[in-house]
Task: inverse folding
């Protein structure tokens, strides 16, 4: 059921049982569990998260391979079949007042006993020409997610830090014997260069500018005109958390002040506020987020009925 909640469930009405922010694997799994307990759940959904852009998910139980949009579309339909109400609106702010959460979105305020923050993150990609043509197809940023797709192929690892050396060695051990490391804008110290040579991994120093090829990746052109042939790339990238609506809350975060620290069942330092996926410390994958969503939902259910 997709709609904006009516005034009867706003701050003046009966509080909802739970508000879920984000319709990725974690948020959807939480909704499925909560709604199967017949709780009143509102899901805020804005398309376009990282799972949505995934072209090949191969490690999600029950799917030999599934595209991110297909996984999310099926999950949303499943959640709706159990009665979740979906609001396609951006959440502006979450506050705690008198023992309840107040969630502000699209000029309205909604009250809830619990909140699940599962809004994920967005990619920060390298500024290489033609990168979007190959992103998710032959240009990857996560070894854990997509390393398997480089198996047996001519791989180029691009990194701006010495971590790229360790990554290159790991990729050769697990996926392909044909690895070259492109040190983007720096020179590895002699011990690291020696390690690459010992492992049979090529070393190139330079600044990549353009990915070459039409239907398939053929190589990378550097700023000085050199071309490095490759079939796949494991390149650097970063993420920006979609957590602006949590600003102002006294949440405990990691040493860098970046990710949110959680305790048992994914609960944050604010009681009743649960955090899933990329927003919290730890590994972040679709299958992991889904498990976190189930765990948080079950814990919330036991508190609602005081089991």
Result:
């Amino acid at each position: 059921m997709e709609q904006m909640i009516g005034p009867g469930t706003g701050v003046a009405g009966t509080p909802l049982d739970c508000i879920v922010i984000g319709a990725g694997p974690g948020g959807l799994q939480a909704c499925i569990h909560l709604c199967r307990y017949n709780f009143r759940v509102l899901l805020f959904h804005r398309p376009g998260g990282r799972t949505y852009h995934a072209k090949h998910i191969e490690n999600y139980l029950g799917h030999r391979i599934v595209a991110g949009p297909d996984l999310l579309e099926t999950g949303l339909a499943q959640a709706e079949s159990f009665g979740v109400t979906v609001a396609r609106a951006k959440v502006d702010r979450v506050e705690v007042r008198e023992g309840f959460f107040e969630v502000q979105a699209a000029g309205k305020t909604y009250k809830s006993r619990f909140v699940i923050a599962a809004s994920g993150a967005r990619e920060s990609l390298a500024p290489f020409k033609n990168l979007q043509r190959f992103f998710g197809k032959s240009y990857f940023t996560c070894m854990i997610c997509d390393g398997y797709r480089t198996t047996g192929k001519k791989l180029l690892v691009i990194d701006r830090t010495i971590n790229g050396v360790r990554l290159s060695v790991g990729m050769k051990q697990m996926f392909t014997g044909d690895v070259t490391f492109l040190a983007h804008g720096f020179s590895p110290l002699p011990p690291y260069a020696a390690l690459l040579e010992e492992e049979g991994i090529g070393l190139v120093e330079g600044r990549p500018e353009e990915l070459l090829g039409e239907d398939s990746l053929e190589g990378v052109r550097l700023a000085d005109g050199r071309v490095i042939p490759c079939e796949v790339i494991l390149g650097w990238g970063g993420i920006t958390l979609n957590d602006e609506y949590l600003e102002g809350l006294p949440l405990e975060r990691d040493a860098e002040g970046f990710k949110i620290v959680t305790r048992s069942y994914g609960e944050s330092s604010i009681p009743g506020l649960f955090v899933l996926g990329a927003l919290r410390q730890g590994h972040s994958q679709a299958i992991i987020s889904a498990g976190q969503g189930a765990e948080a939902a079950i814990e919330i259910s036991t508190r609602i009925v005081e089991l």
In short: The chain has two domains: 7-120+242-304, 124-237. The chain has a mean pLDDT of 94. The two ends are 29 Å apart (CA to CA).
